[in-house]
Amino acid sequence: MPVELRIHIDGEEHARGTAISTTVRNLADGEGQEVLVLVGDVARVQLEPGQYLIEASLPSGERLRRPADLREGAPPVDVSLKPLRAPNAKLSRQHLLMPAERLRPAPPPPFSPLLSFTGVAGGTKTRVPSRPPSSTPPPREGHGYETERPYEEPPFFGALGIREEAPLPVVSVLWRNPRAPDPTPTTAALAGERDLQDQPFPDRLPFLSHDGTLVTYALPRPPGPLPATGTLVIRWDQQLVLIPVARWEGLPGSSADARIEFVVNLSTQTVSAMVADPIFGPILGYLTSGQLEKAAHTLRTAVPFSRLERDEHDPFAAAISALVLARTMLSGNSEHEAKWYEWLRFLDKDAPHILELIKSHLPKVQVEWRSWVHLLTTWTPNIPDTAILEGWLRLTDESTDTDEEAAEALACFLQAFQRGVPYFSVSLRMLLDGLLHFDPGALSQDQREPYRHALRTVRQWATWVDPREPFTTLRIPRED
Amino acid sequence: MTVWNFSTGPGTHALVVGVGRYPHLLGGGGTPFPDHGGMGQLTSAPVSATAFADWLTSTYQPPTHPLRSIDVLVSGGAPLTYQPAVAGAQAQVVERATFDNFKAAVLRWYAALSTSPDNHAVFYFCGHGLAAGLQTTLLLEDFGDVPHAAFAHALDFDRFYLGMDPCPARTQCYFVDACRVASRTLFEIDTFGESVLTPSRKHSTPARRAPVFYSTMLGTQAFGRADQPSLYTSALLKAMKGAGAMRKGNAWEIRPTTLLTALDDLLAREAEAAGATQNCNANNVVDFPFHRLPSPPEIPVTVSCVTQVDLTNAVLRVVGGATPHEHAASSPPWNLVLPYGTYEFIAAPEGAPPDTPRHVHTELVFPPHTEVVLPCP
Q1: Of the residues B292, B322, B339, which one is the last residue of a structural domain?
Q2: Rounded to 5 degrees, what angle do the CA atoms B120, B163, A439 make?
Q3: How far apart are CA A280 and CA A289, in angstroms?
Q4: At a CB cut-off of 8 Å and minimum separation 6, what does B38 contact?
Q5: Angle A214-A220-A224 from CA coordinates, rounded to 5°
Q6: What is the CA radius of gyration of chain A?
Q7: How far is CA B112 from CA A25, B4, B12, in A?
Q8: Beta-bridge mates of residue B363
Q9: Could you please report the per-residue DSSP string of B122-151?
């Protein structure tokens, strides 16, 4: 006789509804099942009597665990999980989605502030020793470049180590009309680098909250009635941070009007952006942190495919979904085919030629997901991420292995490059890997130079990208 | 050629590389490479590679893919003679990890893996590494011996990884223990080294299962201890004892998803204890049984108290499992390693009378790590 297990994840009012993929594992045989728990709600599962371990994995990397003993004929068993990392009162759900180090002050430097300093003449600023003092642990042997480099000067004032009040960065937003034939706004911003670095912007953003370390902002409504994409531009003394984002239109009936929020950590000079959508925020967080199975489970459980199949809904939600789908289908885990089967519906009326090409060679589910991603690419002519997905589809299409098909894949990647900096950091990795598949020496004369240009630029983006961030966050040293 | 072939048939083929000696980097004795970037000699890398090879040959026990061969390249101060912990395996002087030797070893490894789609590949590298954004370059012993061809003897790991995609063995596991600190030189030169294998223009099908476990995040350093295994390799080998395990039926298996969780936790602890900060990172993590434990998993346990006022010098007693365990008098937190199971944790001040209230808590010890917080009496 099954016994009811009731799982609850505790959360503040503003974090309610955040979807957390939770594993319920039978301790006798190790078998587990995934349950989606919404913060603040109770998820009910009927289980055979036995001992279980309930483990919730947050996109932030935190794991919440409790055992549960379900006995025959016993009343329902309640398991309550509470995130240990207490949210900053000024934050909404960032503590559930972002790594903890992004939301706290920088750790102290690897030396004691009471040890000797070399004062800088004429001022109170101090310089740390070029090597750790002898009382610190012996220097570790680094396997890399910086082992012998002097430590850089930390932002310290005075021998007592009083931290200088960090100045607020200049935060602006540049708007673009996504339906205009422009590349992503970040590309435009990169092209106008000098302006970005030296000139003031008219629409400097006001912050929502500020506690001395963390400053939160929300993407404002774009000017004018058309939907728009924007680039967040954060200027520090030493670096420029660019984040392409789109206004989150939301899905009908679920997460309409979710905001893009971002947190500037003055202590670490990092910027973390998230979509304050209780479903897609976690999905994007799981995808970025490498918890692919969790991303897939959350998507399949919480988002009916019917909500994503047309472009009048949010194309960015659809793009994230397609990324999750593609990454799992290409992961080598064959169990995913069956799991996605029920989620997808057959679509063929808009791209019969593509379907005809692959239908005869692939299982039905392969046809369905590939056709959907193809349609998504055509719906979103200005989103680089969908063109990257299309290129990957062509690279993995079993039905053809021709020069033409390879050329088409390359064309997709070059088109994605023309569309600009991908919105999501996962896509940027895929674009780089996609381009690396090609040998420039084997390309035609026409393709060779565009390819080299694209690869050089994408490598530059990849040099700047912060891979821990879900949105493509480019941290550009000012001297660059 | 230092390859040991243990048996035939589908199974695991491993390539283990440790590079500690770099003649053209600081302290190497050869003509210094102009753009050495401060890199020098590593005593930890050869020890780490040997420790990993020892684990593979003595303990590694995948459910269906026994170790069929291992190829070892090590560049240390002196030539290394290595004998795998396999009955009948002969000791051999290990080849040095020069680029040519590495290239030959990769081609041997690839050929061995190509004999069956059911083969599994294991790749381990410990040595210097560089990065430019998302791309990682690994340095072989003779890196820098051609002054005007900076990355002639370095491995473009990302292209090498893509080049392994056509390999018939569809299950591959990579462990990269090297720094990933950004290198301006790397970017400016616009090359990331040689890839040995060229990526095909198409992804092969079925999609391969090929997780990569990096020792550190992009843009950050990896650390070693002089003449000891690196922090990452130490954490990896501890995770293989049980922290990275999950239960499947009556067996405990190390799987990539659970291994990553455990590795992340253990590495952070190793680094903290050494006064460093190091967090691992992984790509393309997908589940499959990598290793089966021969005995119940050994799991790290941290025991602390809600309040420590009366426990500045306390005795911790652990009841459960085969024998009760008593921890020497000390202050919490206590760091233990216990087999899977349910235990009663009891703490009391040292020398306290028998009727003194104890801090008592019962907890299930389960991978990857269990934290026990003792309540007030």
Answers
A1: B292
A2: 170
A3: 14
A4: A145, A146, A147, A148, A149, B26
A5: 165
A6: 25
A7: 38, 12, 9
A8: B343
A9: EEEEES-EEEETTEEEEE-TTTTSSTT-TT
Q: Which CATH superfamily is domain A3-84 in?
A: Immunoglobulins (2.60.40.10)
Q: Residue A338 corresponds to which tokens in the numbers above?
A: 């069956």
Q: What is the CATH number of the domain that holds B370?
A: 2.60.40.10
**Torsional class of A322: left (φ above 0), alpha (ψ -120 to 50), beta (otherwise):** alpha
pLDDT per position as a tens digit, A22-39? 999 998 888 889 999 999
Output phi, psi for B17, to 5 deg: -130, 130
Rounded CA-CA distance A156/B117 in Å is: 57
Phi/psi of residue A38, nearest 5 degrees: -95, 130
| Residue A251, token pair as written in the block | 């899905």
pLDDT tens for each residue of A333-359: 666 666 666 666 443 444 444 444 444
Q: B123 near B112, Cβ under 8 Å? A: no
Structure tokens at A433: 């890997």
Nearest CA distance, B355 vs chain A (angstrom): 31
Summarize pLDDT for A225-254 with one digit per residue, the tens: 655 677 888 888 777 888 888 776 655 444
CA angle in degrees (0–180, nearest 5) for B162-B168-B174: 50
Contact A431, A417 (CB under 8 A): yes
Give yes or no for B223 touching A (CB within 8 A): yes
| DSSP state at residue B259 | H
Å between A436 CA and nearest CA of chain B: 7
**Contact (CB, 8 A) for A272 and A223:** no
Q: Which CATH architecture has domain A170-275?
A: Sandwich (2.60)
C-beta atoms of B134 and A429 within 8 A: yes
Domain identity same for B129 and B260? yes
Q: How many CB atoms lie within 10 A of CB A180?
A: 10
pLDDT digits (tens, 9 = 90+) for B207-261: 899 999 999 987 788 999 889 999 999 999 999 999 999 988 889 999 998 999 8
Number of domains in chain B: 2
DSSP for residue A247? -
Residues 405-464 in A contacting B (C-alpha not used; CB under 8 Å): 405-406, 409, 428-429, 432-433, 436-439, 456, 459-464
Element (H, E) at A229: strand A229-235
Spatial distance between the Cα atoms of A464 and A447, rounded to a whole number of angstroms: 26
DSSP class of A125? B
**Residue B84 is part of which domain span?**
3-292
Tell me which residues of chain A, numbers 41 to 80, contact chain B at a CB-CB cutoff of 8 Å.
53, 61, 63, 65, 67
* Domain closes at, from B246, B276, B292: B292
pTM over 0.90: no
Cα dihedral sign for B206, B212, B217, B221?
negative
